[in-house]
Amino acid sequence: MTEGQVEAPAAAPSLEGSVASQPPDCRAQGHATWARTLVAAAVVLAVGASVGALSFFVERALWLHPPVTTRSADGWRVESRHGRRFSGLALCGERLIWQNGPSIELLDLAAGKLRLLGPGPGMRATWAPAIGERYAVWFEAVSGKASTADVIAYDSVVGRRWKVAEIGEVYSLPSLSGTTAVWCSANGSATAVSGVDIVTGERLAIADGYGSPHISQELVVWSAHDAWPLTARDLTSNRTWSVVPAAAGGRFAQIVLAQRVLAWGQPAVGGSATSVMKAGVGGGTTQVVAAAVAGLEGPAFDGTTVAWAQDGPAGAGGVVMARRGESPAFVVATRSTPILEVVVSGSTVAWLTQQGDVSVIETGELPR
Amino acid sequence: MMGRLGIDRQRLLVLLLVALWLLNVADLALTRYAMWLGFAIESNGVMDYFLRAGAAPALAFKVGIVSVGALLLWRLRAHRTSLLGAMALCAVFAAVVTYQALWALTR
């Protein structure tokens, strides 16, 4: 017999029958042997399982740096860790999505469950996401300077993500409504506003040239250089027209489209203050939602409520404001640091602040 | 050592090989699930080839190769290294499946 080899038993053991036919003492000994053998197998499996569980939690703690999510008085508070910065907030219904460094994260506001959605395997760069009622969409690339990027979609009902399309250089963030996503990208020297149905994969050619598009239902609007006029295209009828609401002109600070209504920040000529305005895409009157706002961030608009952030009293900190229809504007929250981003959907407002090395997202409920 | 602890080596080998086979199937199922969700890719080139070919070829290959390996370990059961090998393989597969299961549960 060679070293490391033991004598083989005369016959393979009968695992059950031999125990039953033995006297009670032997049977008890056989059961004890079985029990000890089962325990030995369980120990082997438990050691392996422990290593697997340890790897999982160590990887999450040391490499993925998930943010800390806690309940607040009327919503959620999410804090970044290890100096990572949040950006690109988007909100639809009960789902809040943002960038955390190179990661795309989604918080289910009903359950408080945080999900890491991207970047996918092999990808290191992402751009700010867009979110709709069921789907979310964003871009991923091997690096921020890559000449191509992937359009990634996420189905929040199924919990599945997939690559919808490959595009050239990213020139604008995506905008999403229903199953249609639009963006601006460049293939070589050809820049175009285009889109895709994220479920069927059908591509949409919307316009040549640069523009940062926004979509709501079947309507897409874009502007060449953050200045009026906007170009509007109805994807159903393919009708295209120019949009310059009354009192709008020159450049705008930020524009948002919801249910064929635009909300935007209109800088005063030669002044530092900006007005928040609202008007239908098809014409009609322009409503001044807030006049002479100092340090405007936003606006955000969900078709009913306009929300924005402005400098706090005496220019310190920031204030989150909201206004519904013709009713007066009201304060949603006041913070000691400037508000960097605001989003609104239904009765929920979310905003982003930077407190030293910590990015903070907070959500609050609007009064009904 | 095993004898002194009152452990039947052959019974332990049988248990470990059955566990290995089940863990192997669980590994395939969880890998397929993570790939279907779009959060994982198969980095093993050979397995990736079979996964791309479909569920049946992947199952046949993965179950087949582990079954052959398990039979080989059983045939070599007279060697202590056979039991040690089965223990090591079981521990590794348990680690992988636990990692994948935790990932799936936290989705």
Q: Span between N and C termini of chain A?
A: 85 Å
CA radius of gyration of chain B: 16 Å
Order of helices and strands of chain B: HHHH
Spatial sequence of strands, sheet with the most strands of chain A: 1-2-31-30-29
Compute the average pLDDT of chain A: 89
Strand content of chain A: over 45%
The CATH topology of the domain at 119-244 in chain A corresponds to: Neuraminidase
Largest sheet of chain B: none
Structural class of chain A: mainly beta
Spatial shape of chain A: globular
> At the first level of CATH, what is the class of the domain at 119-244 in chain A?
Mainly Beta
Poorly predicted parts of chain A: 1-19
| Largest sheet: number of strands, sense, barrel closure of chain A | 5 strands, antiparallel
Oligomeric state of the chains present here: heterodimer
**Classification by helices and strands of chain B:** mainly alpha
How far apart the termini of chain B lie comes to 43 Å
Largest interface: A-B, 39 and 37 residues
Helix content of chain B: over 70%
Shape of chain B: elongated
Detailed description of the structure:
The complex is a heterodimer of chains A (368) and B (107). With 368 residues, chain A is mainly β. Helix content of chain A is 12%, strand content 48%. Chain A has a five-stranded antiparallel sheet with strand order 1-2-31-30-29, with no helix packed on it. In chain A, strands 7, 8, 9, 10 and 11 form a five-stranded antiparallel sheet that branches. Chain A starts with 16 loop residues before the first helix and ends with a strand. By secondary structure, chain B is an all-alpha fold. Chain B is 79% helix and 0% strand. In chain B, α1 runs parallel beside α4. Chain B starts with 8 loop residues before the first helix and ends with a helix. Classes of the chains: A mainly beta (368), B mainly alpha (107). The interface between A and B is large, with 39 and 37 residues.
